[in-house]
Description:
By secondary structure, the protein is an alpha+beta fold. The protein has 3 helices and 5 strands. It is extended and about 55 Å long.
Amino acid sequence: MHTSIRGVQRSAESVFPISGRFGGKPGKGSELSWNGEPISFNRKLDLKPGDTLRMVVPGGGGFGNPLERDPERVLGDVRAGLLSEDAARSDYGVVLSQDGHMDIEATDVARKAIQRKHDVLKSDSLG
């Protein structure tokens, strides 16, 4: 009976993520973790029973300004498990209450704060 598996994962790490379009954010790069710890690509692994290997492949860039997305649709994505609550808050400015409903006032504040930060970064890069 085999008690381990050996493999080699070869993949270029995404240094230049795919650009977003029409205000969309760039896609995420590749990630590889072993038992919850990030590891580099292109290495040999000796996996044993109970080990966890997690590989995230690069995704495409976003389409359109995430702050213009209907907050109810963002909430629907969270409920469907397509988006974490953290990503809803940080990427779309949608804040959920502890009972899982959208906090409309906090969402308005978060979206304005993200927009201000974006405006400052944009003006700094121009000047």
